[in-house]
Amino acid sequence: MMSDKDIEEFHSLEKQMRRIKKSNKYNYIEGKRIDDHGSRIYDINGARLPSVTTILGKTKDQKFLRDWKAKVGEAEAERIKNLSSNRGTSMHKFLESYITGVGYDDLTELGQAAKPMAKKITEMGLAPVEEYYGSEVTLHYPGLYAGSTDLVCLHNGLETIVDFKQSNRPKREEWIEDYFLQIAAYAMAHDYVYKSQIKQGVIMVCTPDLYYQEFKIQGADLRSYKHQFLKRLDMYNELKFDEKEKVEINKEELSEEFKFDKLAVQVRNGEIPPDDVETHFMNQTFLRYFRKKYRKELLGMSPDYVKKYGYKKT
Fold it and tell me: Is residue 314 situated within a structural domain?
């Protein structure tokens, strides 16, 4: 049962969120998110695209993260990461609930910690939002990338991409370059697919002790981050190409080994004429493979082959 305080808080939030009206200006395409061996991809109408977060994660300098893990220890780093991730997920659910008007609560200890963080963002960050076009919106740039942004809205008269972030401590602008790149990628995708003019990105950050921060990018800064993201996308594609090339090489090696194995069996069983055998043995790679495979079975071979090619009994 809800207490009087909970009921009062619920109605207060309900009244507050009535100020944000829903606009159907954009008809958003839905996509399916897939987590694949540590990477995230999106299926958009049958096309599989890498996520923005995966692209940035694969191309960022990991030195700071490695140093931090070395300082606090792997176990503690994992605990902090999981706690932060779960608290952030809960905070996002509260914010989505506030925006869309769909009821939600989380009575766990973690949920009750996230709830006031969401409320702080609601009060401080969402006040200038006049209308919203979508919450938890899947965006994609055809053939290049995809992702999910927290909010697309009209913020102080500007069409805006908004991202909500929880943080264990206050942020400095120089620490959050990837947040800006993420916003820039979503803005490019939105403009391309929906012929919009996203003018602004806003990152709304709140800590567990309810310290609120807001970071904005517009104009030349937004254009600069778009170019920087495209460079990171190129880096990602080069890395993927290198990985794919390695896989293809391995496939070729496996294919060659399969071919050698079949041929070795035919040679061993005397199914190939001697002249052809001699030709095959001129391939030193096959010869080494054959000797290794049958080093303990040479007695089972034709005596002529043994004599001709100098195999020794083992």
Answer: no
| Structural domain includes residue 124 | yes
Q: Do 81 and 24 belong together in one domain?
A: yes
| DSSP annotation of 259 | H
Fill in the amino acid letter for 25.
K
Higher per-residue confidence, 96 vs 275: 96
Instruction: Tell me: do 162 and 251 sit in the same domain.
Output: no
**Which residue, 144, 287, 126, 146, is CA-closest to 206?**
126
Question: For position 85, which CATH number holds?
Answer: 3.90.320
Closest CA relative to residue 153, chosen from 180, 135, 179, 141: 135
What pLDDT does residue 307 have? 45
Residue 262 has pLDDT above 70, yes or no: yes
Q: Report d(CA 229, CA 182) in Å as an integer.
A: 8
Rounded to a whole number, what is the distance in angstroms from the first to the last CA of the chain?
83
Q: Identify the CA nearest to 101 among candidates 156, 181, 31, 19.
A: 19
User: Which of 203, 228, 253 corresponds to the end of one domain?
Assistant: 228
Rg of the chain's alpha carbons, rounded to an integer? Answer: 30
Cβ neighbors of 173 (< 8 A, separation 6 or more) are 215
pLDDT of 72 > 70? The answer is no
Distance of CA 91 to CAs 24, 87, 155, Å? 25, 6, 21
β-sheet bridge partners, residue 202? 162, 216
**Top-confidence residue, 10 or 175:** 175
Tell me how far apart the alpha carbons of residues 30 and 137 are, in angstroms, rounded to a whole number.
Answer: 8
- Asked if 219 and 145 sit in the same domain, the reply is yes
Kindly report, residue by residue over 32-63, the tens digit of the pLDDT: 999 877 788 999 999 999 999 999 999 987 66
> 48: part of which helix (H) or strand (E)?
strand 47-50
Q: Which contacts (CB < 8 Å, 24+ apart) does range 301-305 have?
A: 301/268, 301/270, 302/270, 304/274, 305/267, 305/270, 305/274, 305/277
Place of tokens 């908004």: 162
Triad 3, 8, 10: Cα angle to 5°: 95
State both tokens at 174: 């120089």
